[in-house]
Write a structure and sequence with these properties.
Blueprint lengths: L2 H6 L7 E3 L4 H11 L3 E4 L5 H6 L7 E4 L13 E2 L4 H5 L6 H8 L4 H6 L2 H5 L12 H6 L28 H7 L3 E6 L2 E6 L19 E6 L5 E7 L10 E9 L5 E9 L6 E2 L1 H7 L6 H14 L10 H20 L4 H9 L4
Parallel strand pairs: 1-3, 2-3
Antiparallel strand pairs: 4-7, 5-6, 5-7, 8-9, 9-10, 10-11
Helix pairs in contact: 5-9, 10-11, 11-12
Length: 340
């Protein structure tokens, strides 16, 4: 191998590796090492980012050896791989569909539920190698002072690309965060901030250890991406409903992903659906309310105006599926091929 080729290879920076066996031990390491340390579970997001010098921790604290994080006793351990999640019969449909559509089988075998919830935000100007970013003077998210997507913006607008978060937000789920000073439980919708840099409310010394999902929801998740076999979402729509005996909706939660720097609940759509039945007219109105909150920017795949337009369609697909319509052919078509 020539010296020039060796320089162009994406290599991991040097780091120390810690392998605790308990959450308490991992929390103690995080508290002691401070900003120099980062958690790693499956490594499917962090390790490529380290190769591109997005993150350069001096110490990696592995969660792979902590058995308690891979249990599913009333709650879902954050260390369960996405493939593990698919094997659990009690997992709600929306979460199952979201987990099944993350990346590829090989990556789902490595990537964890907690890791997908804490996934770094993405942007066309950020998710490049170091030399590419250096050539444009870097960007606001890392090493620079200009957001190339919105040059007048003082806030990074990198987009949230987690699939499991909108599904869990729709399901009104919560997560447990543990540190050396104790544990706290927060709703999944409160785990995120609308900031491409400071996108999590989880403190650096906290470990996301489990996910609690309430029962009784009928739910679904629809994902838009260019390639059905691999890509990150460029839109995610999750819906969860509860019905009474005459098929009227008693509670409704709809969430959007990949439409901002955080996944979020579309509260107006949920309020509108309460007490109603899923007629075509009701679905159309609720879908329009969802689409009105989708404000994608030109920092990921596909045309941003088209992505906003199809938010209406995908919300409609989700609600029609929850009504009981047979959406299998349409789901298969959207998963395999998108025009353009």
């Amino acid at each position: 191998m020539t010296e020039k080729k060796a320089k162009n290879m994406l290599r991991l920076p040097w780091f120390d590796y810690r392998a605790p066996r308990t959450v308490a031990e991992a929390a103690k390491i995080l508290a002691g090492e401070g900003p120099a340390a980062m958690l790693v579970a499956g490594g499917t997001d962090l390790l490529p980012n380290m190769k591109r010098r997005h993150q350069t921790p001096k110490i990696l604290v592995s969660l792979k050896g902590i058995d308690s994080l891979r249990k599913a006793n009333g709650s879902l351990g954050a260390g369960l791989t996405l493939s593990d999640v698919l094997k659990i019969a009690t997992v709600p449909t929306a979460l199952r569909q979201a987990a099944a559509q993350v990346a590829t089988p090989l990556l789902r075998n490595m990537g964890t539920l907690g890791g997908n919830l804490c996934l770094d935000t993405r942007c066309s100007y950020y998710n490049q190698n170091y030399e590419w970013r250096q050539a444009i003077g870097f960007c606001l998210k890392k090493d620079g002072d200009v957001c190339w997507v919105a040059t007048a913006s003082k806030r990074c607008v990198a987009v949230s690309s987690t699939d499991t978060a909108p599904a869990l937000i729709a399901l009104d789920a919560s997560v447990v965060l543990e540190s050396s000073s104790g544990a706290r439980e927060v709703k999944v919708q409160d785990l995120y901030r609308n900031d491409g840099i400071d996108y999590l409310s989880r403190r650096p010394d906290e470990i996301l250890t489990s996910v609690k999902v309430p029962d009784g929801w009928k739910s679904t998740y629809w994902k838009l991406r260019r390639r059905g076999s691999f890509d990150f979402p460029i839109l995610g729509v999750a819906a969860a409903l509860r019905f009474d005996s005459d098929s009227s909706i008693t509670e409704a939660r709809l969430a959007l992903g990949a439409a901002a720097s955080r996944p979020f609940l579309v509260e107006k759509a949920g309020e509108f659906l309460k007490g109603r039945k899923l007629t075509d007219e009701v679905i159309a109105e609720a879908s329009a309310l969802v689409a009105s909150r989708a404000k994608p920017l030109d920092n990921t795949d596909m045309d941003l105006y088209w992505r906003k337009e199809v938010a209406d369609d995908f919300a409609g697909y989700a609600l029609r599926e929850l009504r009981g319509d047979d959406m299998r052919a349409l789901r298969l078509r959207t998963a395999r091929y998108l025009p353009g």
